[in-house]
Amino acid sequence: MKKNIAILGSTGSIGTQSLDIIRQNPDIFSVEVLTAQSNADLLILQAIEFLPNAVVIGNEEFYSKIKEALHSFPVKIFAGQDSLSQIVEMEEIDLVLNALVGYSGLKPTLNAIHAGKHIALANKETLVVAGDLVMTLAEQSHVMIIPVDSEHSAIFQCLAGENKKNIEKVILTASGGPFRGKKQEHLEKVTKEAALLHPNWKMGNKVTIDSASLMNKGLEVIEAKWLFDLSPSQIEVIVHPQSVIHSIVQFVDGSMKAQMGPPDMRGPILYAFSFPDRLMTDFPRFDFTNCPQFTFEPPDRDLFRNLGLAYEALNKGGNMPCILNAANEIAVQAFLEDRITFLGMPHLIEKCMHSVTFIQKPTYEDYEQTNMETRAKALEYLLLPACRPGRDAEP
Ligand code: MN3
């Protein structure tokens, strides 16, 4: 029996790498659904190669183009945001890979869990925004949430055969990004081109900017809290520039387990697909005879303020991580459009955290509302001088 996989976000970085894996294991996995927001050309090519049961394009403008291109193939075609989040309910699907970016990943995740589908989760924002809701629902529905984020995959792998109650703490490793060791004067003037040059990982734009600003690690701290049922004080971050140790679990007896390998997202994707089994690969192996030194250093929290803001949001709880996430999505988009400085981003996020309506026990509707309110506020704050390019951000 093949495992039927739905890939949400199949034209992005994680999506295309997951199709590489399926291409190499055609007897084990089959593609049931492919979805994309607006890259119709690549979606068409993928559909012709993998012949999924259905494809969904988020942007309805491209519906007729895809319909025409696939008219002689046995592939159902849907369009629009509602179809994007409902397609996960299709009966034949065994596993949903959520490789969407940002808040938009939440609704499809919840729908998939409701429908009893196991989740391979690359969309960390799902857990950042509504970890409580998602994990509770997953438990009630007997659905597995298997992390695809490399750090969380590492922890998940370290916990195989272990009892979660024996975790003392987890240590998330961070590469430090392209601006590791840089000073304030440097960061004030960095461009998006420089921020997009990640030293170790090849990823989409959003997560690459998040890595440069350490917000990615902040989001991952919140993600780890929910995935592994930890308290904030049990989650630490250490910078490990070589990105070979993907994360570490320390147990109550002082023993530690680390998961290692070359930085290649296909590893965690494949593990999520094959779990609890492992499959043979021809991926590059780490070579100890040619080893670089492994080094570790604490993150610079004074300069990279996003990490502290994420801990603050996690400690505050309620809808605060949702506020943090929505403000960050606007900040990153604005940075990519040269509408905010690199150091203006944490400033904008902090302003939103101090001004958006706080809710201690949010429902799904509250999260929707918080997401919208925060985005509107963030867009307003973007007009403030401290956030704009060419001005000094407040320290
Ligand atoms: Mn990661």
Please state the average pLDDT score.
95
Number of alpha- plus pi-helical segments: 16
Oligomer: single chain
Bound small molecules, by name, code or SMILES, are: manganese (III) ion
| Number of E-state strands | 11
Fraction of residues in helix: 40-55%
Question: Tell me, what is the CATH class of the domain at 3-147?
Answer: Alpha Beta
Structural class: alpha/beta
> Can you say what the CATH homologous superfamily of the domain at 3-147 is?
NAD(P)-binding Rossmann-like Domain
Question: Could you characterize the architecture of this molecule?
Answer:
- By secondary structure, the protein is of the alpha/beta class.
- Among the domains are: 3-147, NAD(P)-binding Rossmann-like Domain (Rossmann fold), CATH 3.40.50; 317-395, RNA polymerase sigma factor, region 2, helix turn helix motif (Rna Polymerase Sigma Factor, Chain: A), CATH 1.10.1740.
- The chain is 43% helix and 15% strand.
- It is built from 16 helices and 11 strands.
- It has helices at residues 13-24, 40-50, 63-69, 81-86, 106-114, 125-140, 150-158, 184-188, 192-195, 205-212, 215-228, 266-274, 306-316, 320-336, 344-355, 364-381; strands at residues 3-8, 29-36, 54-57, 76-79, 95-98, 118-121, 145-147, 167-174, 235-239, 245-251, 256-260.
- Strands 4-3-2-1-5-6-7 form a 7-stranded parallel β-sheet, sandwiched between helices.
- α11 packs parallel to α13 and α14 (320-336) runs antiparallel to α15 (344-355).
- The longest helix is centred in the last third of the chain and has 18 residues, at 364-381.
- It is globular and about 60 Å long.
- The model is unreliable at 391-395 (pLDDT under 50).
- Residues 149-151, 220 line the site of manganese (III) ion.
